[in-house]
Design a protein that fits this description.
Elements (H helix, E strand, L loop, with lengths): L4 H12 L8 H9 L4 E4 L6 H11 L3 E5 L3 H13 L4 E4 L5 H12 L5 E4 L1 H4 L2 H9 L2 E6 L14 H4 L3 H5 L5 E5 L4 H10 L7 E3 L7 E7 L3 H12 L5 E4 L3 H13 L4 E4 L5 H13 L4 E4 L14 E4 L6 H8 L9 E7 L1 H13 L4 H19 L4 H8 L13 H4 L4 E3 L1 H13 L6 H8 L5 H5 L16 H13 L3 E4 L5 E4 L3 H5 L6 E3 L5 H10 L13 H18 L3 H4 L2 H10 L4 H5 L6 H18 L1
Parallel strand pairs: 1-6, 1-7, 2-4, 2-5, 3-4, 5-6, 8-13, 9-11, 9-12, 10-11, 12-13
Antiparallel strand pairs: 14-17, 15-16
This protein binds adenosine-5'-diphosphate (ADP) and zinc ion.
The site of adenosine-5'-diphosphate has 18 residues, from α3.
Length: 608
């Protein structure tokens, strides 16, 4: 039953309250509605859900959505119910009676969309249930979970290959925000989509400002960022260990910031409570290990901060991508130092993975370090990593574009450093090498007789911090390697020789501006558009938010399920006087108009 384009648009408008498609959505919706399989690669916040929700409504039968996380399913379903769509979930949170009722509705053709956990879907019972039902399509969300090389591998996703075998006539649409070639290939193979078209959206997230600063006192730097740019706003802070998560959360709370810890060591109930508060309340900061975030749909996360280095650019991109789904200005901020590289290397070396896996992991880490050390546009680098031509060389919204770092010819500096590594026997870490270079006769220096070496004190032109930065950059450039087995001792590499001989050019970035100033300077150029944007009425904006919190509490759903921030902004600036005018605002579909229209108009009227 191929639906006509005008009909599709009328549903887009009446159910989702949207006036037009975004990017490649229209093509995808048409393709799937006509029964085609496909793979969709779109960044977080790009609008993936619509690509299967709309075709599910346009086609006969129920759309089955495979989704790995219960929280994600719950929020998506509450959003759909709000919009008047017959949606349900089938997962382990339901009682047998509730599950039985959902199954009955599926068979009776009473459902438009059903969200199912993969392990549930693959049970013989569920497969035979699906065989009796009329199915519109299968949507496999977070499809990168089938990839064993990926960062979110879920063994149960492998079993999804059965869908193509058992239901060859039902269209399959696989969606992910992870786009590297290896993962893409694996998804296509495992889900039998090799012949199907792959729709790739741009991975650029123009509203996210990327910043990577030199780690001094990371916690103080983080508090500075929050105070200067994100006070009272929701954010996620990532740390590597549980202990650090607890420390950072406690320290932020002492500074008056409502911060909650989240890690696998907390009991399930505490974790759920913290996650709920983060999602439902305004301005909560969650401090978490990477266990947190996947499947969190909160659109108004204003900053994502990394206090430790992620494993790869994919992980960095995905974690930072949780900021600013609503398209408003957001920060992706990371503090990083040499010890982070050593720590990540150690984790790789000490893991029990195969050598091949370790090699891939090291390559991925190197790529991330290079991103952290680049003097060029971070966005251009990120996009290039995902195989995308950046539109411009200078994005104007990353630290390097806003405050271009000066680069200098670092050949001599590099030679001094590498000779120092060589003369001290490739057995020492950064601190000792810098002591030798700057001529500090510490106990360790004298004990090893390093004050007698020709390299002792030859590095007076840089201070300790600058040497540290130079050292890190040489690691990033591959002219030095931090040996995790030898407690972070720095060793020469293949390419060191060319540098020592003066044959290889070495350009280094100058470390003159302190990170703290940097954040502040970048902040001063932050476009001033605040949430309640141009021409909007602040009093009305506040009243609308209070009204929304109230409704959300009463209905037991997150505030953004009631109305998105952008819809609130729209109402506060348009100030609709009639239901018709209200209907023209993005995010107001038929159901919301019917449910909230009168109240919203009354609110607008009483505030003017
Ligand atoms: P993803 O799953 O790709 O992370 P979502 O499907 O959750 O993204 O969509 C992200 C946001 O974009 C949501 O707030 C959604 O309402 C909005 N959105 C999606 N499609 C459109 C569109 N065509 N026009 C305006 N907003 C849209
Ligand atoms: Zn840039």
């Amino acid at each position: 039953m191929p639906a006509s384009a005008p009909f599709a648009e009328s549903v887009l408008n009446s159910v989702f309250g949207l006036t037009s498609y975004r990017g490649r959505q229209e093509e995808i919706v048409r393709h799937v509605t006509n029964g085609g399989n496909c793979l969709v690669l779109m960044p977080t916040g790009g609008g993936k859900s619509l690509c299967y929700q709309l075709p599910a409504l346009l086609r006969d039968g129920c759309g089955i959505v495979v989704s790995p996380l219960i929280a994600l399913m719950r929020d998506q379903v509450s959003g759909l119910l709000e919009a008047g769509v017959n949606a349900a979930v089938l997962n382990s949170t339901l009682s047998p009676q509730e599950a039985g009722e959902v199954e009955r509705r599926l068979i009776a053709g009473d459902l438009d969309l059903l969200y199912v956990a993969p392990e549930r879907l693959l049970t013989p019972r569920c497969l035979s249930l699906l065989a009796q039902a009329n199915i519109a399509l299968f949507a496999i969300d977070e499809a990168h979970c089938v990839s064993q090389w990926g960062h979110d591998f879920r063994p149960e996703y492998i079993g999804l290959s059965v869908l193509a075998e058992r239901f060859p006539d039902v269209p399959r649409i696989a969606l992910t925000a992870t786009a590297d070639a290896l993962t893409r290939k694996e998804i296509a193979e495992r889900l039998q989509l090799v012949e199907a078209p792959c729709f790739v959206a741009s991975f650029d997230r123009p509203n996210i400002r990327y910043e990577i600063v030199d780690k001094q006192n990371a916690l103080t730097q983080l508090k500075g960022l929050i105070a200067e740019r994100h006070s009272g706003e929701a954010g996620i802070v990532y740390c590597l260990s549980r202990a650090k998560v607890e420390d950072v959360a406690a320290s932020l709370r002492e500074a008056g910031i409502p911060a909650l810890p989240y890690h696998a060591g907390l009991d399930a109930e505490t974790r759920a409570r913290h996650q709920d508060r983060f999602v439902n309340e305004d301005g909560v900061v969650i401090v978490a290990t990477i266990a947190f975030g996947m499947g969190i749909d909160k659109p108004d996360v204003r900053f994502v901060a990394h206090l430790d280095l992620p494993k790869s650019i994919e992980a960095y991109y995905q974690e930072t991508g949780r900021a600013g789904r609503d398209g408003k200005h957001s920060s992706a901020w990371m503090a990083y130092g040499l010890s982070d590289i050593v720590q990540q290397r150690r984790m790789i070396d000490e893991s029990t993975a195969s050598d091949a896996f370790k090699r891939v992991s090291i390559g991925k880490l190197d790529a991330l370090v290079a991103l952290a050390e680049t003097a060029h546009c971070r966005r251009a680098r990120l996009l290039a990593y995902f195989g995308e031509e950046p539109g411009r060389e200078n994005c104007g919204n990353c630290d390097n574009c806003l405050n271009p770092p000066k680069v200098f010819d670092g050949r001599i500096v590099a030679q001094k450093l590498l000779s120092c590594v060589y003369r001290t026997g490739e057995r020492f870490g950064a601190m000792h090498l810098i002591d030798v270079l700057t001529g500090r006769p510490t106990d360790k220096v004298t004990q090893f007789g390093h004050d007698k070496l020709s390299v002792f004190g030859i590095g007076g032109e840089l201070n300790e911090k600058q040497w540290r930065a130079a050292l890190r950059q040489l690691v990033a450039l591959g002219h030095l390697r931090a040996d995790s087995e030898a407690f972070g001792a720095l060793k020469l590499t293949e390419s060191s020789r060319g540098v020592l001989r003066g044959e290889t050019e070495v350009w280094l970035r100058e470390q003159t501006i302190t990170p703290r100033n940097r954040a502040a300077r970048a902040g001063s150029r932050q476009p001033t558009a605040k949430p309640n944007g141009g021409g909007s009425d602040p009093a009305l904006h506040t009243a609308l938010k209070a009204w929304r919190s109230d409704i959300a509490r009463k209905r037991g759903v997150p505030a953004y399920v009631v109305l998105h921030d952008s819809t609130i902004d729209g109402i506060a600036s348009v100030k609709p006087a009639t239901l018709d005018e209200l209907r023209g605002i993005a995010g107001i579909g038929d159901r919301k108009l019917e449910r909230y229209g009168e109240e919203l108009i009354a609110l607008v009227r009483s505030s003017s």
